[in-house]
Structures are given as C-alpha cells and as structure tokens.
Amino acid sequence: MQGFNRYFPPDFDPKTHDTLNNYHGKHALGDRARKLDKGILITRFELPFNIWCGSCEAHIGMGVRYNAEKKKVGMYYTTPIYSFRCKCHLCGNWFEIRTDPQNTRYVVESGARQKHEEWDQEENGGIVLNRKEDALETKDRLEELMEFSEARNSDPFGMSPPHQNVSGVAVIHTFLWPYVCQFQALSQRLRKTFRKEKAELITKSRGDDQLRSKYSLPAGLKFIEGAEDDPSDQEHAKEARRLIDTHRAEVEAKRSRLSAERGLPPIRSHSGLPPKAAQLADLKQKLAPSRQKKLASIRTGSLVSRRPMARANPHTTSLPMAGSSKGQPVPTAESSKKPLASLAGYSSD
C-alpha cells in the first residue's frame, strides 16, 4: 500500500518504519512478493516454444503467458540459472522450465514435454549459421584468449611479451610487442598534443566570434596572425578587405531594395558616415530652409498677431484687499481726493 498525496500518519516514525510500506506491513511489489522470503518472485512468463502437458497431454502453444514462480536454482560461471514454475490452465498440473546459458536456450525440466521442431539447415538447402566444427574452433580460440589474458595479468607492468605456448598469432606478437608498446606511448603523446591544440583553437575561435559580433563583421572573415611582411598574410588581408567590401555592398543593395519596395527615398551614404547618419544629414539639409522661414516669421510677428498689452499704472498696486480672495486694486490717494459730487454722481455744473 502506498501513501497517496504524501500523507504520513501521526504515529509514523522514520527511524522505526523507514517507509510507508513497512508501516502498513506491505511490499512494494504487492501480491507478487508473497513468497519472497523463500526466494520466489511471481512474474509474467511467456512460453518460448510449444509443449505438451505431462498430465492432460494437452497441446499448449508458444506465447501463452502464465503467472510463474521465478527462482534462482544455480550458476553457470557468472550467469545465474532461473527456473519458471507454471500451472497448467487446463488441468492444474505444475511444469517447470529452466534457462540454459551454456546453450543459450530454454529447457523443460519437469511436468511437460517440449515439441521439437528443429530441422537440418544443410538438408533443407538453408544457410548454415552454426556448425559443430565452428563451435570447436571458437572454443579453441577462447582457450587461447584465456591463456593470453592470464599471461597479461601475470605481468605487473604489462611490458613483457605474452605466453610462449600460444601458437599462431602469439608468436608474431612476441616480436611486435616492443614496437606495440612504443607506438602506444607515441599515440598517447600525440593525443595529448592534439587535445592541447584543440583547446587553443576553441579559445581563439570564441574570441574571433566575439570580435565579429562586436564590429558587425561578416561570418566568413578570418583574422590573420604573424609578420606583416609575409606575402601570405598580405593575401589574407586583401581577401578580408574584399569580403568586407562585398558585405557592405550587399547591405547597401538590400537597403535600397527595401526602400524602393516601401516607397521611401533612397538612402545616400556620405563618405565616412554610416547609412543611418547619412540619411539624418540629408533630412536636416532639406528642413533647413523651412526652419529659417519659420524663425524669421516669428521674429517679425507676421505669423501670429497678438494684442498689445496695457502698460502697468505706476500709481496702482496689485495688492489684494483684506478679506477678499480676488486681487482687486486698493484705492490710492488721488482717488480719495475726488469731490463728493463726483462720488455721488452729480456733475460740477
């Protein structure tokens, strides 16, 4: 049983239970591990060939699947031998099939009979893949290889020739062994030099890429190193200039084509200026006369008519009256000296 949504009960102790499966007394494989204490694991097994049941004599075809009890029963060198114990679905009889690592096949151990469908490849005109003579030759080669490996392992430094009892290739190898060791040392030294040069080339290539991206240089441009008097370097420099000029010409042609497609005026590049700066210079030159006219009209006052402003009265002040929010003029001494008749609205006549 698994703990869904990471739920851990309050009485769960990691030191005691370790996992939720141990807490619930379950195994991660569930019911398949019910006989795990006996070394048996329930697994899905598919018949590798046709068999007859030993009890009901029923034919069971290749590919039928069973819930088999898988168990380790032995070893062939370092390869384990497993047995699969299955129960017939027709009569309930148990039969056992084991692996055979020596012959790379399966064999029926008990409870059933295998249906042999082997045929002779030579008699039926087929291609012979495995012969007994070839198997014997392979076995002899394996024995020679084992002797050679034992001789190599017995030498602590690996510099002495292999065992002399090995015939054939080993005799030739005895004479070539010093040269092989020398070639190995030379190969190691050469690979070390190649790795160092490769690291230097990668570093130089990254620096060149950064320099090209910084100054917007074409990707095919190659930087030269060495003396300036070298004719090969001069040729490289000429080639670099040609690439730069070609790149600039392509950029100019592309900009002109885009300007013509969008109905914009063509971009004329001044000497020593990039195309964008040249376009700004042309625009300023075109707008200069109209700018001068506007400045002249503003100075003469013909462009905008304005009302002449009234001159300020030196006798009046703009200080507001006490208690008033608006800036009303304060009566002066001359206005206070007017006659009462004029104040009352009567004429002096």
Describe this structure in words.
The chain has 349 residues and is an alpha+beta fold. Among the domains are: 35-114, no CATH class; 133-204, no CATH class; 216-278. The protein contains eight helices and eight strands, in the order ααββββββββαααααα. The protein has helices at 14-17, 20-24, 132-154, 169-215, 231-262, 275-300, 333-336, 340-344, and strands at 41-46, 51-53, 59-60, 65-76, 79-87, 94-100, 105-110, 112-114. The strands form two sheets. A five-stranded antiparallel sheet has the order 1-4-5-6-7, with no helix packed on it. A hairpin with a 2-residue loop joins strand 4 (65-76) and strand 5. It is elongated. Residues 159-165, 302-306 and 316-327 have low confidence and may be disordered.
With helices defined by DSSP (H or I, 4 residues minimum), what is the helix count?
A: 8
**SSE class:** alpha+beta
Helix-strand string: HHEEEEEEEEHHHHHH
As a whole number of angstroms, the C-alpha radius of gyration is 52 Å
Tell me about the biggest sheet? 5 strands, antiparallel
Roughly what is the average pLDDT, rounded to an integer? Answer: 74
According to DSSP, the number of beta strands is 8
* Quaternary assembly: single chain
Instruction: Tell me the span between the first and last alpha carbons.
Output: 125 Å
